[in-house]
């Protein structure tokens, strides 16, 4: 009897897990590494639903490629831009600006958490020429969220 009861519980749990649907969201921060406040730092959030298959090219051996839409069609117009401040001021690195950006991101992360989104991955990179006297570049971070429908 215990085995049957355990099996029933397992099957109910399994079916409820398989029935859940997840949705994903990516939020990107771009923080400028340009002295003197000349750069543009932003939080970027996509505001549009896109079907990637509408922009996919299928290639075949016979050379008859089924082409996707034009590159200009890929750009979405619905997005949210939240202003951040740059890492550098006229005198160098500005720690108050970094703390301000951290406060903005903390606010965003708390909002998404309250809305049922789970932060599942963060990835970041820096881009800079790094040549002689280079003071230009960006620091990009992507935040990957998942929300499971119940």
- Alpha-carbon distance between the two ends: 30 Å
Shape: flat
Number of strands: 7
Order of helices and strands: HEEHEEEHEE
Please summarize the sheet with the most strands: 5 strands, antiparallel
Poorly predicted parts:
none
What structural class do you assign from the helix and strand content? Answer: alpha+beta
Average pLDDT rating: 81
Number of helices: 3
Helix content: 25-40%
List keywords for this structure.
150 residues, 3 helices, 35% strand, two-stranded antiparallel ribbon
Summarize this entry quickly.
The chain is α+β, with helices and mostly antiparallel strands and 150 residues long. It has three helices and seven strands; from the N terminus they run αββαβββαββ. The chain has a five-stranded antiparallel sheet with strand order 3-2-1-7-6, covered by helices on one side. It has a two-stranded antiparallel sheet with strand order 4-5.
């Amino acid at each position: 009897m215990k085995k049957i009861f355990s099996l029933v519980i397992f099957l109910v749990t399994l079916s409820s897990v398989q029935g859940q649907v997840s949705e994903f969201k990516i939020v990107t921060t771009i923080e400028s590494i340009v002295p003197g406040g000349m750069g543009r730092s932003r939080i970027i959030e996509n505001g549009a639903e896109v079907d990637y298959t509408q922009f996919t090219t299928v290639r075949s051996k016979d050379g008859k490629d089924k082409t996707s839409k034009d590159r200009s069609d890929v750009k979405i117009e619905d997005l949210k831009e939240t202003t951040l401040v740059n890492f550098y001021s006229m005198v160098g690195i500005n720690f108050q600006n970094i703390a301000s950006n951290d406060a903005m991101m903390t606010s965003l992360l708390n909002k998404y958490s309250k809305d049922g989104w789970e932060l599942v991955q963060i990835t970041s990179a820096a881009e800079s020429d790094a040549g002689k006297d280079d003071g230009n570049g960006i620091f990009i971070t992507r935040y990957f969220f998942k929300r499971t429908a119940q």
